[in-house]
Amino acid sequence: MIVVDWSQALIRRLTWLMGVIYVLVIPSQAAIMDYGLKDYVRSSKSLPHVETKPWKLVCSLPYNCHFQPWIELESTPEKVIRFNSSNPLVEYLQPTETYTTGSGEQIYEATNWVSGEGAIYTIPAGVTVKAVKYRETGYATKITGFFQCDEADYNILWQKAARTAYLCMRDHFYDCPDRERVGFWGDGTPELDQCFYVFDSASHQLAKDLVLRKLDPEFYPGQQLEFLGDYGLWFYYLQTGDLASVRAVYDQTKIFLFNVYQFGNKRTWFDWGKENKDTAVLEACFYYNCLGTLRKMALATEHAADIPLIDQKLARIRNNFDQQYWKGSCYQSSQVATPDDRANAMAINVGLADRAKWDAICQNVLVKQTCASCFFDRWVFEALCKAGRPEEALRRMHRRYATMIPCSFTTLWEHYDRWWASHIDAFDDASSLNHGWNPPALLLSQTIAGISPETAGWGTYHVLPQEAFMKQLNVVVPSIRGNITVDLDKSASTYTLNLDSPANTLATVGIPKGSFTKLDSITVNGSLIWKDSYCGSVNGVTWVGEDAEYVQFHVASGRWQFAGAGTLRIYPPESAVEPVVNGQALDKKSWMASSSVADGTFLFSGDKIPVDIAAANAIDGDHWTGWRDMTATQHPGQWFQVDMGAPQAFDRIVLDNTWALWDSPSQYALTVSDDGEHWGQPVAAGYGKVGINTIKFPEQHARYFRITQTGVNQRYHWSIYELDVFTHSIRQPGDQTKTP
Fold first, then answer.
1. 451 burial type by CB count under 10 A (0-12 exposed, 13-18 middle, 19+ buried)
2. Which among 334, 345, 346 is positioned nearest to 288, based on CA atoms?
3. Which fold has domain 584-738?
4. Which H/E stretch holds residue 708?
5. Cβ pair 497, 487 in contact under 8 A
6. Residues 154, 198, 158, CA angle at the centre, nearest 5°?
7. How confident is the model at residue 27, as a pLDDT?
8. Mutual orientation of helices 341-349 and 377-386 as an angle, nearest 10°?
9. Cβ neighbours for 448, distance < 8 A, ≥ 6 positions apart
10. Contacts of 103 (CB under 8 A, 6+ apart)
C-alpha cells in the first residue's frame, strides 16, 4: 500500500553551538510506503499484563525505522497512556503522544510517526494491555543494490549504511530522522550519491529535488560548494542523464560561484571533526572542483560563452595553489599548526596535487591524521584509493567504525565513538545514532568494486576494482539501464571477474595489476586475449590498453568472464571485530535490577529533556534505555545487581554501553550469590573498554550477580544501557577479563 504524505509545513529547527537558524524545505509530494501492522521482536513483559501501579512496556523492533505504535487494551475511562520511541532525541521535534482511554476493550494507533529501534508504552495502574504492534512506514523505494565480500565487517558496514540512508529519506533528505530532519546540502550529498548504489529508481526523485533546490548564501555556503561539483550536481547527471535539471540550475550555479560565494565567510562549513580544519586549502579545492563541473555543465547546456572566464578562474587557482600551500611534504595554510587530512585529501581528489606528490601526502598526512569526521572521511578514503592505497583506505574505515560495527544499533552515527571533536572534546549525548552523511555503501560499491559511470546515464561505465585484501566480491549496482552485477574471486593463481552488463551499455573492464606479483595471461569467456600484450580477438570485446595499474578492455552488453592467471597477492584474513553475542541469552523478563544509587532521571542535552535512568532499564531489552549513576563520576564501590528470580547457569555477561560509550566501567569485579546477602570472592575482574564489554568466567550457578566498580574515572559517569547474560558460550581468544 502506498499513501501520500501531503505535509508542506516543514520549517525544521536546527540547534548548533553557533546559535539557532531556521531552514525552509519545500519537498515534493513524496510517496510513502505503508508496510502494515507488524509484531515487535520482543516486549519487556509477557502479554496480557496489568499492574497495580504505573508501569512501562518496552518493545523492540527488528531495525531502526519510522513507526507508529499500536495498542489493544482494556480499561476504565480517563486513563492516560503515553507512548513514544525509546530514542530520546525524537522529543526535540515532537512531544510524547498520549491517548486517554474510554471504557472497556479498545484499540488505538499513534497518529504521528517516530523513529527508533524500540517503543515505550507508559501504562497507568489498572490498565490491561492485551496486545501491541507497530506500523512501519517509509519512503517508497526498495534496496536493490547489493554488496558482499569475504570480510564480514565490511558487509555489516554496507548494510548499516544502507539502512541509515533509507531512514534519512522521506519528504526530503534528512540529516537524521529524529533530532532535526533538516535538509542540509552536506548530508544530502552522500545521501544523493548512495541512492544510485543502494535503491531503485524511485529514490531518484529526492535526488532531483535536491538538485533543483534554490541555493541559499546564508546556509553554510561551504556545504553548497561540496554539492555543486563532481560529488553532487555532476554525480547526479552521470547517474541519470537528466540534462533538463542540469540546464535548469546552470544559471543559479554560475551566479553562486561567480557573484555570491565569498572566501573567508565565518559560516563556511566543511566538516565537524577536529578543529584544525584548513579552510583556506579546502575552499580552494572545492571551488576549483565546482568550476570544473560548471565548465562541463556549460558544454552540455550550450553555455560555451562562459568557458573562457571559467578557464581563467581555474588557471588562477591552479597556478597559485602550490606556491601558496605546498610545504614540501604536504599542503598547509597558515590557518593550522599541523597538516589537515581533509585538505590534503581534497588536493588529490580534485587534481590540484600532481601524482608526484601523492606518496608524500599519503605518508605524511593521510595515513597518520584522523581529523575528518565520518562525513568527510569519504574524501580521505577516495584520495587513498586514487593514490593506489586501497588497503590503507579500508583499514582506516575499519578502525574508525570499530565501535559501530559490533554494536546492536542497525544504523551509523553522527560522530565516530559518539565523540564531539569540534569545539569540545567530549561524549556528545545528543548526537544521533542514525545520520545520513555516512558513506560506506557508496565507497564499497563505487570505489572498492570500482563500478562507476563515465558518461551521463551509464551509456559507458567502468569496472576497475581495488579490492585490496578482499578475496571475493559480489556487487549489484542498480543503474538506470539495469542492474550491473560483478562477481570477483581470487585464488593464489587466478583472478576471476564475472560481469553481467545491461543492454545499450559499453563497459571498460580492468584487470588490476596490483593484485598480482606476476600477471601471465588474461582470457575472456575462455579465449586467450592477453599474454604480455594484446594477442586475441573475442566478439564484443575490444582492446583499450594498459598502464601501470590496469589491463583494460571494452565489452558490449552481456555476460563476460575475465580470468587473469599468474601469481596473486593473497593477504592473511583481516582481524574482524569480535562478535558480541555467542551462546544462548537467558530470558530476563521477570528479573529485578537494583544499584548503589536510587532510581532517578537526568536532563538530557541542551533541551533538558528528562530521561529515566532506573536500574530496570538495563534489562528491558532496549539499548536506548539504560541505567546511569549520575550522582558522581566513577569510583570504587559503585555497584549494579540483578536478581534472576531463581538459580541459573551462566558464563558470560555482556554490558552494552553503546548509547553512552564513554561511561563503560573503568575497572570492575563480578561476584555471585544465592541469597543476595552473602557474596564470595570475584569470579571475574577486568578493565572496561569503550562501548561493549564482555565479562567471561567459569560457569556459575547462582540467582544473584553484582558488578562492582573498582576503578576511577574523574570525567565520566557509569552507565549500563543493556545487560545480557549467556549460558554455554563459545570461547573466544583475546579475553580482556581474568579469573582471580
1. buried
2. 346
3. Jelly Rolls (2.60.120)
4. strand 692-709
5. yes
6. 10
7. 44
8. 50
9. 385, 390, 394, 465, 466, 467, 468, 470, 473
10. 75, 76, 77
Residues of the chain with CATH 2.60.120.260: 33-139, 584-738
Q: Do strands 506-512 and 460-463 pair parallel, antiparallel, or not at all (unpaired)?
A: parallel
Q: Which three cell numbers stand for residue 325?
A: 600551500
Residue 300, C-alpha cell as written in the block: 552540455
Q: Write the DSSP assignment of 131-146 as a string of letters.
A: EEEEEEEEES--B--E
Band of pLDDT at residue 633, cut at 50, 70 and 90 = very high
How many Cβ atoms are within 10 Å of 183's Cβ, its own excluded? 25
Residues of the chain with CATH 1.50.10.10: 146-448
- E strand map for 44-145: 55-75, 80-85, 97-100, 104-109, 114-123, 128-139
CATH number of 146-448: 1.50.10.10
Task: Give the total residue count for the chain.
Answer: 740
Instruction: Using DSSP, state whether 17 is helix, strand or coil.
Output: coil
- The rounded distance, in Å, linking the Cα atoms of 115 and 432 is 11
pLDDT at 737 over 50: no
Provide CB contacts within 8 A for 434, sequence distance 6+: 64, 115, 164, 167, 168, 176, 177, 178, 411, 412, 413
What is the pTM (predicted TM-score) of this model?
0.93
Q: Please give the average per-residue pLDDT across 566-570, as a whole number.
A: 95
Cross-strand partners of 559: 500
Element (H, E) at 320: helix 307-325
Higher pLDDT, 282 or 272: 282
Cβ neighbour number for residue 95 with a 10 Å cutoff: 10
- Higher-confidence residue of 691 and 460: namely 460
Residue spans of alpha helices (H) in 450-560? none
Q: What is the pLDDT of residue 19?
A: 30
SS3 label, residue 207: helix
pLDDT at 671: 98
- What's the per-residue H, E or C state across 237-272? HHHHCCHHHHHHHHHHHHHHHHHHCCCCCCCCCCCC
CATH 2.60.120.260 holds for 33-139: yes
May I ask the CATH class of domain 456-568?
Answer: mainly beta
User: Which segment of 226-230, 373-377, 471-475, 731-735 scores lowest on mean pLDDT?
Assistant: 731-735
Q: Is pLDDT above 80 for 567?
A: yes
Cis amide linkage into residue 48, ω under 30° from 0: yes
- C-alpha closest to that of 294 among 321, 270, 314, 269: 314
Question: Letter for the amino acid at 722?
Answer: E
Assigned C-alpha cell, 33: 510506503
